[in-house]
Model the fold of this input.
Amino acid sequence: MLCQFSFRNFKSYREETTFDFQASSIPEFADSLIRKDKCSSLLPVSAVYGPNGGGKTNLLLALASLISAVVKPIHDLEKNRKALIVQQKVGAEPFLFDEMSAKEPTEFQLFFRTKEYEYRYYLAVLKEEIDGEALDRKKIGGKKPAHIFYRDREKISLGTILKKENVNTSINAKMPFLSFLAINYNIPVISEVQEWFESCVIRSYANPMAEMQIMVSDDEEFKARILLLLNDMGIDVEDYRLDEKENQLYLKRRIGEKEYELPFNHESDGTRKLIAALPVLLVALQEGRLVIIDELDAKLHPKLLRYVISMFKNQKINRHGAQLLFTSHDMATMKNTVFRRDEIWFAALDQNHSSEIYSLYEIRREDNERVNSTAAFDKQYLEGRYGADPYLQNMLSGGEWD
Done:
């Protein structure tokens, strides 16, 4: 489970930026939180809103860049322990609107939780080479973290656990030491970290090809759940089959006494999106994975988007601590009946053309009080109270276009 993610000098983000999945001390949707004794509660869902070019996608790409940096070398050598649902490697591109940032490393820091431990992983990348790296862990409820390893360019120091394993510290400058250890050794602490990274799901529905990447399972129970969810969402499908010769998926419907098949590419955009997304989301819910999706709302009716969100917020369905992080332009779901205030985030450019993010819970009104949990979030956002798109503000206030 993801606790917190920080990064700096990545694409449109110049300064250190922190995204937090740790729940604030607020009452709304308390029964949806992911709870564990002796540690903070975590959010099951977070949505990022903001204008085009504000940095929504780059926030997700920063997280995807760190994940793919660790996972890709392992996957390329077929040493992965879990089935991957990752699209592509994302390079660590620095901020380019000042002279110094291109010469500085891009830095990432991730805090995540497994059943018994909380981990901190740090990675710094400069011109495709590893500039720094560190891995620590502590027992949940413990106070003192244990040092696993620390790397400063080519120099690597090992903690007690790795010293016992007699591991090699001479590695390629472009490969994370974490990946190197996962590929070459069977060390329980490294395997646990490796599996967490491999469990992360990355999808971008801004890319039309994403909806053509469909997980099809022969497992009848899994198939039945997909069909149940589709019908529950109002997509009347009785069955589906994959024709391997044609490499085509067919959806079956019954009208009266007759059964009809329709090729997948003849379905509506929304249906294709659901067919592509639901198996991924179902696997995440069954296995407690983190799902990162750019433009989840694209081509989806707001009611269907609410249904997806509700699955992650329902503890009877989300029994294993799955989390969903997505970007959206859909104002119809920016409601206090859908989200907690700390589950809504905004990304926007500052005066130096650098992106920044902040949650709705962090915003203060003119009287220095927080936004009320009963506020009309969507209406206030469009009015510009949360730092809305200046073009929207201009239009809503009747401003003239140049």
User: Anything to note?
Assistant: Residues 390-402 have pLDDT under 50 and may be disordered. The radius of gyration is 22 Å. The chain has two domains: 2-200+289-396, 213-275. The CA atoms of residues 149 and 345 lie 33 Å apart.
